[in-house]
Design goal:
The protein has 115 residues and is mainly alpha-helical. The protein has six helices and no strands. The chain is globular.
Amino acid sequence: MDDDELATRFSDAMVSEIKAEMGRQDLSSRGLARLIGSNPQFVSSRLDGGNPRTGERVVLNVRDIVVIANALGISYVELIARAEDVARRKQDYDLVANESINEFPDGDDADYDRA
């Protein structure tokens, strides 16, 4: 995997981890915006639909990560570690999935055939 692909996976994983923590805390994007002293569009542009003109999500910067982690009551180091773990697990999963799609040991695919 090259650096650009890893950066994209990490960025996606960071957004996923922030959203997962928001879910655990039953916190909406609007609620997070209030906690960080920003507007909902700021949060949406980084976590949801992205820039309304381009449709692209704004990449989180270091300040965003620190501010959001603090608002969620977790350390930015923990948030980064979670995102890195997710990004690397996805890489591992992709490698395994590509090698094993539709492969079953002999005799173990009977239930699959009946489904």
